[in-house]
Design brief:
This protein is mostly helical. It has helices spanning 7-27, 33-64, 68-90, 97-128, 131-147, 162-181.
Length: 186
């Protein structure tokens, strides 16, 4: 989940990883235990990615792009919708009849969000920021992902400064829970 490069390269690499996990999940039959394991892995990565975007990408979008506040609010709204779906998915067992539909809803929402970011938001950001700024933001995103929560917290703040203050604590609690339960281990 940490790749290197500027913020756009880092986040785009995360997008490709998520697409690969979506593909792997789709290849497994409904009810297969590995689907749940892969969904947990996907959830961990998506939550970390979202938290990092909310801490560093969207504040930069607000500050540097025309109509940046509206763009950032729309993207944060996308995150909120996905996080609510992930929270519901988290409670499903591998053989839960809701799991397949919730997974498809997550896949559709994430795919749409990724296309929007990559086709519209990232090109604008590349034009508005220097390569040095984008590189520094890439470093900050990588650090944020390391401390970020691993479970969906739909009620958590999504904008600074509250999200930057609370995310590391939630991340610590989530990683402790993951360690105890074995969640996220391959």
């Amino acid at each position: 989940m940490a790749h290197g490069g500027d913020i756009i390269e880092e986040l785009t690499s995360d997008h490709r990883e998520a697409e690969e996990v979506f593909r792997q999940i789709t290849m497994l039959p409904s009810g297969h235990q590995d689907r749940k394991r892969l969904i947990d892995h996907l959830t961990i990565d998506l939550v970390r990615h979202s938290v990092a975007e909310e801490q560093y990408l969207y504040p930069t979008v607000r500050e540097r792009l025309p109509q940046g506040a509206a763009l950032a609010d729309k993207e944060i709204g996308d995150h909120s919708a996905v996080e609510k779906l992930l929270k519901r998915l988290e409670g499903c067992a591998a053989d839960d009849p809701q799991l397949d539909q919730l997974f498809m809803d997550v896949k559709e929402a994430v795919t749409s969000h990724v296309e929007d970011e990559e086709n519209h938001l990232f090109p604008q950001l590349r034009r508005a920021c220097s390569p040095e700024e984008l590189a520094k933001l890439g470093d900050k995103v990588r650090m944020a992902k390391k401390a970020a929560p691993t479970r969906p917290h739909p009620a958590a703040p999504t904008t600074p400064p509250a999200n930057k203050l609370l995310a590391p604590g939630l991340g610590l609690v989530d990683r402790a829970r993951d360690y105890v339960t074995g969640r996220g281990r391959s």
